[in-house]
Amino acid sequence: MAAIDSFNFAGKKAIIRVDFNVPLNDKFEITDDTRIRAAVPTIKKVLADGGAVILMSHLGRPKGEAKPEFSLKHIVAHLSSTLGVDVKMASDCIGDEVKAMASDLKGGEVLLLENLRFHNEETKGDEGFAKQLSELADVYVNDAFGTAHRAHASTTIIAKFMDEKMAGYLLDKEIKFLGDTVENAEKPFVAIVGGAKVSGKLEVLKSLITKVDTILIGGGMAYTFLKAQGHNVGNSLVEEDLVDTAKQILADAKTNGVNFMLPVDNLAADKFDNDADIQTVGNDIPEGRMALDVGPETTKAYAAEIASAKTVVWNGPMGCFEMPNFSKGTFGVCQAVADSSAVSIIGGGDSVAAVNQSGLADKMSHISTGGGASLEFLEGKELPGVKAIRG
C-alpha cells in the first residue's frame, strides 16, 4: 500500500475521504470533535506539501435526501479554526458547480463537499457517482476507518478510477494496530470481550481463540456462557438460541489451550435502574434479579491477568457502565489496562466511550475510531475500503 509520507502532493489536488460524522446538539454545535482532530495530520501533510485538499464525508443518516440538519455546513467554522485555514464549502458533492470549485482550488486551500449520503448512489456503491467524485482530484486518500468496512462509492469504488491512491495517517495507524499488532502480538496476549450479546461478537471470539492466551468475558454476553455451564442466570440477558454455540466456543477455547475466563461474582439488581436494589452474588443469579455488572472479585481476577499481559485487545464493556452503580467493573478493567505495560488496543464502540469517560484515554496505545470496522478487522476480514487502496 502506498505510504502518504513518501508522496509529494505539490501541485496536486487530493480528494480525502474523512469521517466527519460527528455528534451535534440541537443548536447544531459539535459536542465531540475527536473525528475531526483525527483527520488533521493527513490534511496538513497535503497542505504542507503545497497541495490542495478536497474533503468528503457523510453526516448522520439522511437516506438519500438533502436534509438541512445533516448538512456539513454545520462543521465548517470549527473545521476552519482547527486547521487554521478558511475552508470553502460546496453546495453538493457532484455537479458542475462543484467541478468548477475544485478546478479553481489552489495549493494550500481546502474545499469541503456537501454530505455524500444526500445521494443514494453513495451507499449503493454506484460507479457513475464514484467516477464523478474521482474527476475532482489527482490523488485519492482514504482516512475514514469508521466506514472502511462499507463498499460505498467514496470509500471503495472511487479507487478504481484513481491511479494514485493511498491510506491517510489515521487509516494506516488502524491497519498497523488492529492488523499487524494483533497478528504478531507479543505474548501473553489477553483479549477482553464484553457487550450485550454473544451474537455480535461470535466471529471475533472464533478468530481470537486461535490467537490469544486468555479471553476475559464481561457484559450481558457472559450470562449466555454461564447458562451454557449450567448456572441459573435469573432475569439476566441470555440468548437462548446461542447457548449451544456458547458451549462450542468454550470447548474450542479448551482445545486451543486458551484460558477462557467468565465472571466469578456479579452485581444482581431487582430492576434495570441505577437505583435498583443490588446484591453481590456468585454465578447463580437469584430468580427475579438480573446481573448488570461483574463483581469485585471478577474485576480483581481480570486485573491480575491484564497486569501480566504484553498485548491487550479490548472490545465491549463489563456491565451497564452508563449507570454509575454498574460501572465499577468496566472502569476497574480500564484502570488495569492503563496500569499495565502491555500494548493496548481499544476496539471501537462502547469501549471507547468507557475509556474516554474514565479519563484514561491517554494511557492506551491505540483507540480505534471504528466500531463495526474494528470488529470486522479483528474477525480477520479484509475491509473493502482497505483492499481498494492496496497496490
UniProtKB/TrEMBL annotation:
Subcellular location(s) of the protein: Cytoplasm
Record-listed ATP binding positions: K201, E322, G348, G349, D350, S351
Enzyme class: transferase
EC number, as in UniProt: 2.7.2.3
InterPro entries: Phosphoglycerate_kinase (IPR001576), Phosphoglycerate_kinase_N (IPR015824), Phosphoglycerate_kinase_sf (IPR036043)
Xref: SUPFAM superfamilies: Phosphoglycerate kinase (SSF53748)
Gene3D superfamilies from the UniProt entry: Phosphoglycerate kinase, N-terminal domain
Pfam families: PGK
GO molecular function, one term: kinase activity
Kinase found in the keyword field: yes
Membrane is among the record's keywords: no
Subunit structure: Monomer.
HAMAP family in alphabetical order: Phosphoglyc_kinase
Assigned protein family: Belongs to the phosphoglycerate kinase family.
Protein name: Phosphoglycerate kinase
